[in-house]
Amino acid sequence: MTADEHVSELPRPTVPLNEDSQPFWDATTEGRFTLQRCGSCPTVIWWSRAVCPECMSFDLERFDAAGTGTIYSFSVPRGGGGRWGRAAPYVVAYVELSEGPRVMTNIVGCDPDSVAIGMAVRVVWEPTADGPAIPRFTPA
What we know:
Helix content: under 10%
Order of helices and strands: HEEEEHEEEE
């Protein structure tokens, strides 16, 4: 999936680049959704880091994830101020990825009132002005 396959009206913030997150953001420019896996325990990790949050091991590897999951929880803001308020209504959700971790994201490409807990979703990419693409999810 390319970085320009999907575009919503939601704001696209500048991505937080650092030594640990750079490989994730580099992969987004190729349309790849990556996670980390600990080599010392069975933990699959979302958000990029240098140390496993379960066993404190530095033995982490990055892998291409499926980019699929289900909606674990969600909310639909319908107003507010600033650029996010102007984009309302929109969906903020926790997506439980097929690999296990939960990701806070937006659900796009559908009516916010059609979103439901347990709904199958897949990643879509929204480009930013500075290169990396933001992963958001749409109904599968």
